Fold this sequence. Notes:
The complex is a heterodimer of chains A (402) and B (392).
Chain A: H1 5-8, E1 9-22, E2 28-40, H2 42-45, E3 53-58, H3 59-72, H4 100-118, H5 127-134, H6 139-145, H7 148-151, H8 155-164, H9 170-218, H10 225-299, H11 307-315, H12 320-400
Antiparallel strand pairs in A: 1-2, 2-3
Chain B: E1 5-7, H1 17-23, E2 35-46, E3 51-61, E4 70-76, H2 77-90, H3 114-133, H4 141-148, H5 151-160, H6 164-179, H7 188-236, H8 243-307, H9 313-390
Amino acid sequence: MEDCLAKKMEITVSEAEKRTGRNAMNIQETYTAYLIETRAVESQSEGQCVPMDSLWRRYSEFELLRNYLSVTYPHIVVPPLPEKRADFVWHKLSADNMDPDFVERRRIGLENFLLRVASHPVLCQDKIFYAFLTQEGGWKEMVNETGFQLKADSRLKALNATFRVKNPDKRFTELKHYSDELQSVISHLLRVRARVADRLYGVYKVHGNYGRVFSEWSAIEKEMGDGLQSAGHHMDVYAASIDDILEEEEHYADQLKEYLFYAEALRAVCRKHELMQYDLEMAAQDLTSKKQQCEELATGTVRTFSLKGMTSKLFGQETPEQREAKIKVLEEQIQEGEEQLKAKNLEGRDFVKSAWADIERFKEQKNHDLKEALISYAVMQISMCKKGIQVWTNAKECFSKM
Amino acid sequence: TSLAEVNSFSPSVPISPSSMINQYKFEDGPELRDLFITVDDPESHITAIETFITYRVVTKTTRGEFDSSEYEVRRRYQDFLWLKSRLEEAHPTLIIPPLPEKFIMKGMVERFSDEFIETRRKALHKFLNRIADHPTLTFNEDFKIFLTAQAWELSSHKKQGPGLLSRMGQTVRAVASSVRGAVKNRPEMFTEMNNYMETFSQKINLLDKIAHRIYKEERDYFNEMKEYGPIHTLWSASEEDIADSLKGIASCIDRCCKATERRMAGLSEHLLPILHEYVLYSEILAGVLKRRDQIQGELDSKVDALANKKTEKDLVSEEIGKLEDKVERANNALKADWDRWKQNMQWDMRSSFTNVAENNLRYYEECLATWESFLASQSVDLHVEEDAEERP
């Protein structure tokens, strides 16, 4: 942990700016650019105020970075990006990507993403990541030059592996189930939370109507007037208080959302394992069949039905020279295959080992973060209750003076 | 035996005299109260022609005018309507308390649903007690008969009253005279009252709508909260380390949910009925002011007639004298009752809104305690974790 970048370098995503430009198809578009500022931590301790280095990146560049990291480190649970489009909105928030509240929350999410990568023992050492933070020009070309896109597994291949793999590591199967459950339960929770927020907003805001009517009513009352008027004021305060309360809750929702998206990263690691395992199983199967073929040719017995066997029976067998040649080719292939199988086995075991290490690290991080988030939720509720008590205590006093 | 089937479908709600004292303000103090009335035990009666509900009216009194100290009778809504119209006739410029409406248009409350009947029962109970509290109305003869007469006695007494035709005649005259500029000679005080009544009516109707809206929003919030807690419990099933925290949150949310339910109940028990009663009161005030104007209108038209020398001077002068007395009596009665009504209204509003504030305070205090105890339980765990991390 002492080596990780986050300890050596200050990283912030400090600003967001609307830009217009021409995209790849030469069409005018509006997008948001984010300012990444960095500064070496040591330079601060000298007591001088060293300025931060900075550069601008847009969301699509963050996506490119993450894709690169996912392909290059398939055994790592790669931190997720904040959502592309606003989801789980309740009525007040707009689903518009240009909405300032959404942009602000995304800025925080992007900063969080960079900090997560920078504190990861493996990912923080990546040169492309470092360049993303420090090198404004030519970064895209640099990423593409790594040729990572070629290494990416096709979706179809992965799906095929999922269905056909015979002996995946049981821990990964369990992990996949867990990530499915996590994704499902957090989605559900966020959906209901949004509805609860909507209703709570309604309760508070309707009380604001009291304020207006009390004020108008107080005009015709001599003795009740003062009490009504001041009570009305407190009702206005009550109605207004919900905006800040729900704004804070959005940050809590974002914390949960991060782990909703982390579930997908977990599944990606499981998929990679399945692919590798399937690959291994296919290679072993292929090797076995080749060995069998070789044996059949060598001994002249046909144990299994083959088209070759049939044709040779019908049209006569091959010459001994032809058979020898075939056996030799097969023996070469078998040797190659055995080496490949060994390598694949090793690769697979290494993958499982390092993946599982990162998964353990991830689990601890998740438990810590989620527990903190739940506690912060309780703290928010307490603050809301205290505000409510204050307002209604004041209101009660005004009512009792009516 | 008759074709009526008696079926009592809700247990009678005994209301103790002490709880009644808490509900109503007495001008003269509770010690001087000598008439206690309760309305309870709705029973449905099904005949060949109709279905209707009767309520039990129990009266306890120490008054000499009453032959007995305790009475129990059964009355239906029609009987209450009769009583109200008799009181209005006898005291045209007194503010007669409102009766619950015949039907309820808004909402999906059926005519004989338990909720409708209970709401009506409470309102009828209020109606009779307000009359009992009124310094003049409490001694009204029809009121006494209403409280004490058996069903057949009441029926025959009802038939003796001024006939439908004469009542219609009064209505026609009332409409006619209200058309004739009764407003022009209205004393300043009553114009002020009219202005007050108009604004009050507007505001109280708005408040009634706002309060209902709040109730609806609270109910919708409650319904969503019911689903919110259990999701955390579901989640805890897939977790190990954070399972307890999740279950803790679930239980907090469930408790807050119940607290919300209690808050809603408080609203529907106290504020909503009071606001509704005063919405009806605002209509009654309008009616009372109109009737005062009509009475004055009678005087004014006689005075005009005298000026136009259309009839015998002496005869008209005598009539005018009587009408002047009538107007003065009506004005004084209204003025006194208006002041009394305003005081009661002030007391009712103060107590109802204070009650709303108390309900909300109770709600937030309950929720606060719940979340604080959850936090305390988590802090304990956190300390244990911190110690574990510090160990090499």
